[in-house]
């Protein structure tokens, strides 16, 4: 595996040579986008696309987003371009918005899991832009992590999750948005948000009018999903993640969330008390004696930027459970709420 360090403020096409060569040869290249790192391959090459599924351990019924250099290149991958697509592309591309549209005939079935629609995005990150322009190819790129793990927001996360399965990792520093793009289907009768993100329902409805918010779909192995990839236990850290109510007193919440906690620890270091195994992501100013408390930003964008990085760090440090205060029930928090909800699924 080769690592290319690229200045995100001034990416030089010349510095991306090894990445472009790998893509043209059917290889896998991880690269930064404004949301999370993507695991990219030539979207027109069936063998390259198959390597993405293998590297991620991704079930073949979960389709993959295709990244294009600009709106024109994205449109070539569609067979219909409704007014809503034109308006949303105009308003939000390049940016963290993915549109689901009827696919052009030449779009590989493997990319769409046999569905008639393709997911398209024009990323805004300067390194992603430079790579797409230099490669001159549409790039299939799901998040660059093993399936069901927390998405990577740094090159180091990619290396830790995928290792030698990747040919080139383009390191362009941490991703500024920090959670995956908002996914909007324009293939259904009414535009529908399949996955909330930093572009909110209000942002979208300001441009195209009514847009629905889909209920999370259950995972159904073996069948293409109506809004696929909305697998319940997704984005989960290794540690057990539980949501807790910030309005409870911190100690009560801690004891309720972790039966038996009072029995085995805490330890005292320098006059402070720690439970070596439990961390709390705190949005409020509640105290959690005995746990490692991480104070998260109080606005949604800052919280999103830090969330995955924090989960990766706590996993790396060996925490066994992460208690996360529920975030506000406001529209701008929908993306973070959705990821926390999914990450907590499967934790008994
Ligand atoms: O921010 C992002 O979207 C990142 C960066 C790398 O662009 N990509 C990403 O890809 O999160 P992935 O594959 O991890 O998530 C793609 C989401 C999944 O929920 C997938 O099921 C859905 O988009 N999707 C992809 N193709 C689809 C299709 N044809 N119809 C419906 N949903 C689709
Ligand atoms: Mg993913």
TrEMBL record:
Gene Ontology biological process terms, A to Z: regulation of translational fidelity; tRNA processing
Enzyme Commission number: 2.7.7.87
Gene3D superfamilies according to UniProt: DHBP synthase, Threonylcarbamoyl-AMP synthase, C-terminal domain
GO CC annotations on file: cytoplasm
Top-level taxon of the source organism: Bacteria
Keywords assigned: ATP-binding, Cytoplasm, Nucleotide-binding, Nucleotidyltransferase, Transferase, tRNA processing
GO MF annotation list: ATP binding; double-stranded RNA binding; L-threonylcarbamoyladenylate synthase; tRNA binding
Its job: Required for the formation of a threonylcarbamoyl group on adenosine at position 37 (t(6)A37) in tRNAs that read codons beginning with adenine.
Protein name (record): Threonylcarbamoyl-AMP synthase
Main subcellular location of this protein, as a coarse class: cytoplasm
Binding-site list for ATP: 58, 62, 143, 151, 195, 235
Compartments in which it is found: Cytoplasm
Organism: uncultured Gemmatimonadota bacterium
Family: Belongs to the SUA5 family.
Catalysis: reaction(s): L-threonine + hydrogencarbonate + ATP = L-threonylcarbamoyladenylate + diphosphate + H2O
């Amino acid at each position: 595996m080769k690592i290319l360090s690229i200045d995100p403020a001034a990416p030089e096409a010349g510095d991306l040579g090894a990445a472009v060569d790998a893509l043209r040869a059917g290889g896998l290249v991880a690269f930064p986008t404004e949301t999370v790192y993507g695991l990219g391959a030539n979207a027109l090459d069936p063998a390259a696309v198959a390597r993405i599924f293998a590297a991620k351990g991704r079930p073949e019924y979960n389709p993959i987003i295709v990244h294009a250099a600009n709106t024109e290149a994205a449109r070539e991958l569609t067979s219909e371009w409704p007014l809503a697509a034109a308006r949303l592309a105009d308003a939000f591309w390049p940016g963290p918005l993915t549109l689901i549209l009827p696919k052009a005939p030449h779009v590989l079935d493997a990319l769409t899991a046999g569905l008639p629609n393709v997911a398209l995005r024009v990323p805004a990150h300067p390194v992603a832009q430079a790579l797409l322009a230099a490669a001159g190819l549409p790039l299939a790129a799901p998040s660059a992590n093993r399936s069901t793990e927390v998405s990577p927001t740094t090159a180091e996360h990619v290396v830790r999750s995928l290792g030698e399965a990747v040919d080139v990792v383009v390191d362009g520093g941490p991703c500024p948005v920090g959670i995956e793009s908002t996914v909007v289907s324009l293939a259904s009768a009414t535009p529908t948000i399949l996955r909330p993100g930093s572009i909110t329902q209000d942002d979208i409805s300001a441009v195209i009018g009514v847009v629905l918010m889909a209920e999370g779909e259950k995972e159904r192995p073996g069948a293409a999903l109506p809004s696929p990839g909305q697998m319940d236990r997704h984005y989960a850290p290794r540690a057990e993640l539980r949501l807790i109510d910030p309005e409870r007193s911190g100690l009560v919440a801690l004891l309720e969330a972790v039966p038996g906690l009072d029995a085995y620890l805490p330890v005292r270091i320098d006059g402070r008390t720690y439970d070596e195994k439990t961390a709390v992501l705190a949005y409020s100013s509640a105290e959690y004696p005995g746990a490692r408390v991480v104070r998260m930003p109080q606005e949604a964008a800052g919280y999103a930027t830090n969330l995955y990085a924090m989960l990766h760090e706590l996993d790396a440090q060996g925490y066994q459970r992460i208690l996360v205060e529920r975030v506000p029930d406001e529209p701008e928090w929908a993306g973070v709420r959705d990821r926390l909800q999914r990450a907590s699924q499967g934790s008994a």
